[in-house]
TrEMBL record:
Alphabetical UniProt keywords: Hydrolase
Record-linked Gene3D superfamilies: SGNH hydrolase
Superkingdom classification of source: Eukaryota
Protein name: SGNH hydrolase-type esterase domain containing protein
Cited InterPro entries: GDSL_Est/Lipase, SGNH_hydro_sf
Example GO molecular function: hydrolase activity
Length: 85
C-alpha cells in the first residue's frame, strides 16, 4: 500500500512522501526527538511522521484499507467482509 501511495500521490493528497515531517538530517530521517529536530508546518501532506512512523493521515488511510480495501491490498478478504461472514 505504501508503494501505491508513493507512486500515486494525487488521489491521496500527499505532497511529500520521501522526507519525514519531524526529525533531523537527510530527509529528516536520521534522528528524532532532539532539541534541534525540524517540524513541518503541514503534517497532513506528509506520508511519514518520523523515521519509523506514518503520519495520522497515513495511519487513517491504512486503517480504512484494512477494513474495507480491495483484495490487491487485503487478501483473501478485508475486515468488513469478515464481519459479514
Amino acid at each position: 500500500m505504501t508503494i501505491n501511495i508513493i507512486e500515486n500521490l494525487i488521489p491521496f493528497n500527499f505532497t511529500e512522501v520521501k522526507a519525514a515531517c519531524f526529525g533531523t538530517g537527510n530527509l529528516n530521517g536520521e534522528s528524532f526527538c532532539s532539541p534541534d529536530a525540524n517540524l513541518c508546518p503541514n503534517r497532513h501532506q506528509y506520508l511519514f511522521w518520523d523515521l519509523f512512523h506514518p503520519t495520522e493521515v497515513a495511519s487513517q488511510l491504512a486503517a480504512v484499507t484494512l477494513f474495507s480495501g480491495p483484495t490487491r491490498f487485503v487478501a483473501p478478504i478485508n475486515f468488513a467482509e469478515l464481519a459479514e461472514a
